[in-house]
């Protein structure tokens, strides 16, 4: 039987008392390790995090906490090879895709370490300018942001076991709030190992970082009024979290990052072969295949002027055809596996659902897995679908509401700019849209038009063709999250991320009292 990973809670390593759930290699099918949270005293563990971890973190200044994050970065950097080995085995990702998760997580942590240095030797933040309340200027109101007195519970998705932890933990710890992370079971190993390395290095105060692997049962029940919960995952689980008594009765603050049918839009006016057209084809192929399409930000719908449908189908398919799929240990392989058999089945089902309303322009079945047993490996080739004409784009409801969490996207022809906007809006709110074109004014107008429906609009014009950071890459400097179907959450965005972990309060007093707060 494989090793049982321990949980870290209440300042000690503790094994669950059950048999555990096995984690598998999605390419070879081997059992790797087991996780289990049965019998943990969650309430006591959470109390320790709040009382010991929270108090120790709050006693530090922002600059001291920033130094603590920088120390954690060093620990993680020294162990990168171990993390890559776990990602290859448990997520089935090729090296470049593992990097998005592992190095993306470490980069995000180091970005917050640098940001925190600039916040100085303070223990709370000022919010805006003082406002005069009475006739005389002596009595004023000043808003402050103070770290919340609870803990931050992270319930994470399987696709980013590293980045998903650090993109949330960095702003929480910098804010002075202790963290309990519950990784998705399928890929919990990498999260657990990273927590273990940072805990054992002794760079964080006791209780500042805990990990619970296995069942989520009881986690929400153990939350108290000043705690916050940040959830990433499916809309169905998000609905359970939102309706839990912790949120509805105890006012636990909640952030939801859910699924999303993201768009790429080629504006009118750029012919096949133009720079903007080629940039679209390149980005779409990259987005569809990176991490086998298992990114919440991946492009799912590609909008092109109706006259360019055939040319776009050809250009994207030509790039997809070059993708070698299979065992990530083989140097020739560019795209690894889906994360589990459950995901493989879900992708096959979702694809069939879309194929009922769309034609297949490039068939993933053409990609036989390299160096892998097709009966065992959770590998699928990239599939490009299309709705053929603008009338087809209108008629299909599924392409606008189905997120297939794999290397699948649909080409959607539109009649004119207004029609494109209308079709994109049928996604009901997404994390990100990318725009392609060469007319800066038209791109700016389209970006503002799409902004209310998206957390981020990524604009790719020829001048930034070689510079831009990628449609699906979440940069810590920019907002991550999206309205409506995407969950309505907000993460990252530089210092904005700290808001979630602070309480805002107004202090009304004499300016003699308020002045020393600066
Ligand atoms: P999921 O099934 O909703 O699981 C997400 C997390 O919730 C896992 O840790 C899961 O634990 C836990 N969970 C399950 N049931 C729960 C319950 N009743 N109470 C509390 N926690 C519970 O989602 P998934 O299939 O792993 O993730 C894929 C989805 O996440 C995709 O739709 C993707 O778009 C979305 N996603 C969004 C973002 C974003 O930033 N917006 C990022 C990545 C992924 P177990 O694993 O133990 O079941």
3D structure, described in words:
This protein has 518 residues and is α/β, with parallel strands linked by helices. The protein has two domains: 48-258 and 492-517, Aldehyde Dehydrogenase, Chain A, domain 1 (3-Layer(aba) Sandwich), CATH 3.40.605; 262-476, Aldehyde Dehydrogenase, Chain A, domain 2, CATH 3.40.309. It is built from 16 helices and 22 strands. The strands form six sheets. Strands 15-16-17-14-13-18-19 form a seven-stranded mixed beta sheet, with helices on both faces. Strand 18 (430-436), helix 15 and strand 19 (454-460) form a beta-alpha-beta unit. Helix 2 packs antiparallel against helix 4 (95-117) and helix 9 (275-289) crosses helix 10. The longest helix is centred in the N-terminal third of the chain and has 23 residues, at 95-117. The structure holds NADP nicotinamide-adenine-dinucleotide phosphate (NAP). The site of NADP nicotinamide-adenine-dinucleotide phosphate has 23 residues, from helix 7.
Q: What is the CATH architecture term of the largest domain?
A: 3-Layer(aba) Sandwich
Quote the average pLDDT: 98
- CATH top-level class of the largest domain: Alpha Beta
Strand percentage, roughly?
A: 15-25%
Total beta strand runs: 22
**DSSP helical segment count:** 16
């Amino acid at each position: 039987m494989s090793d049982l990973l321990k949980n870290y809670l209440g300042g000690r390593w503790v094994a669950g008392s059950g048999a555990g759930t096995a984690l598998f290699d999605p390419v070879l099918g081997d059992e790797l390790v087991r996780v289990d949270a049965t019998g943990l005293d969650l309430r006591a563990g959470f109390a320790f995090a709040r009382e010991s971890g929270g108090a120790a973190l709050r006693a530090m200044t922002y600059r001291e906490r920033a130094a603590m994050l920088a120390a954690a970065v060093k620990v993680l950097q020294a162990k990168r090879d171990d993390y890559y080995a776990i990602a290859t085995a448990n997520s089935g990702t090729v090296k470049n895709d593992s990097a998005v998760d592992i190095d993306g997580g470490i980069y995000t942590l180091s970005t917050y370490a640098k940001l925190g240095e600039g916040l100085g030797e303070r223990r709370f933040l000022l919010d805006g300018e003082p406002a005069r309340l009475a006739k005389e200027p002596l009595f004023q109101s000043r808003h402050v942001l103070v770290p919340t007195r609870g803990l931050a519970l992270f319930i994470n998705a399987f696709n980013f076991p590293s980045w998903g932890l650090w993109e949330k933990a960095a702003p929480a710890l910098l804010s002075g709030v202790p963290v309990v992370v519950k990784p998705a079971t399928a890929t919990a190993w990498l999260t657990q190992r990273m927590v273990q390395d940072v805990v054992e290095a002794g760079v964080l105060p006791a209780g500042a970082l805990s990990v619970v692997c296995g069942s989520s049962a009881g986690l929400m029940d153990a939350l108290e009024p000043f705690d916050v919960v940040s959830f990433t995952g499916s809309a169905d689980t998000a609905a359970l979290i939102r309706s839990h008594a912790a949120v509805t009765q105890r006012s636990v603050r909640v952030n939801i990052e859910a699924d999303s049918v993201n768009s790429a839009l080629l504006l009118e006016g750029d012919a096949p072969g133009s720079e903007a057209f080629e940039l679209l084809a390149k980005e779409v192929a990259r987005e569809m295949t990176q991490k086998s399409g298992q990114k919440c930000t991946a492009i799912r719908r590609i909008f092109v002027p109706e006259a360019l449908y055939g040319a776009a189908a050809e250009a994207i398919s030509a790039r997809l055809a070059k993708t070698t799929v299979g065992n990530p240990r083989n140097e020739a392989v560019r795209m690894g596996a889906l994360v589990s058999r459950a995901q493989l089945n879900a992708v096959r089902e979702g694809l069939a659902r879309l194929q009922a309303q769309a034609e297949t322009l490039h068939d993933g079945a053409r990609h036989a897995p390299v160096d892998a047993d097709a009966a065992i490996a959770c590998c699928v080739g990239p599939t490009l679908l299309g709705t053929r004409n603008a009338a087809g784009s209108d008629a299909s409801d599924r392409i606008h509401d189905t997120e297939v969490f794999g290397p699948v996207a649909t080409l959607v022809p539109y009649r004119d700019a207004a029609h494109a906007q209308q079709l994109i809006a049928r996604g009901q709110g997404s994390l990100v849209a990318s725009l392609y074109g060469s007319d800066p004014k038209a791109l700016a107008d389209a970006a503002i038009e799409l902004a209310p429906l998206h957390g981020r609009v990524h604009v790719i014009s020829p001048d930034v063709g070689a510079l831009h950071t990628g449609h699906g890459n979440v940069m810590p400097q920019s907002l991550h999250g999206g309205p409506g179907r995407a969950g309505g959450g907000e993460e990252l965005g530089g210092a904005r991320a700290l808001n979630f972990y602070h309480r805002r309060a107004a202090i009304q007093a004499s300016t003699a009292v308020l002045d020393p707060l600066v």
